[in-house]
Amino acid sequence: MIFSAAIIATALLPLALSHPLEKRQNALPPVNSPVDESVLQLALYLEYLEFNLYTGGFENFTDAQYQAQGFPPGFRENVGVIAQTIQHEAVHIQTISTILSNAGFTPIKPCSYRFPDTDPRSFVNLANMITSVGIGAYLGGGSLLTDDPPLLTAASSILTVEARHDAYLRTGLGASPFPTAFDTALTPVFAYNLAQMFIVSCPQQLPIIILPKLNFVGPMSSPNLQPPVSAGTLLKFTFDPSTFFVKVDPNAQLYIGMVNLVTNVTFVEATSCGTGCVTAPVPQGAAGVAFAVLSTFSGGLNETQLTEFGTLAGPAEVVLS
Fold it and tell me: How far is C-alpha 72 from the chain's CA centre?
């Protein structure tokens, strides 16, 4: 019965997207500025990424494979075409594209993607990470839409659905669906750079700077994210100093700036473990998903300043709980 209802819903989706949207075009929020457009184009860029991720998570693994790794019956359908998540992402893509088109802007096209998941559990862990980037991008983008309340409301309504997706994924892993009291916002530059590790090629990239890469090596969190990675645990990162935008003394003290819980940034000293390698402890109070950048600054910068001039490499996503 669930299968039949979902098939009907899927069959009706194109009709529901085309005709009601045509009739209600005037009800869609306006795009009042180039900033509004840039926020929407990035949102669309990330929605395409999530759509392709969830499509693979549904098509590449069977119900039996999901259940063999401890996921409940029906979990695959709830991240797949037949049930909820991909339909949601498709509607988000259609809605954002229509808002842009109505305002006279050309929506970006999807890229080609490569995801490193090899089984249902690695897919769900990856989906938790990528969805957390999407949540962070919507949170950070909201502060740029304050001059356009209807558009801010529309973006916020997508954000809450993204958060529900992530809670469902985390529950499937056996982790807490709500590990922290606050999520972490991301600047557009940081969100865009975090997406790049899954991009093979794009017909059109966004006009956003690509920062030097910071690779999180480990330790990885436990399969069900419990127990949390405790404060003081040494995290290892690698990078290529030759890609820095500025010249840095090889003997200079480096720091890891950890963006976590809204836009809080905590700086900790990094210890060299060789050329292009540092370790740094998890800061006290860090939890959920954090985003690390390599910097020569020891503190005093907020996330926007880190984005504009304080980052040597990064960000790298670190799942703590």
Answer: 25
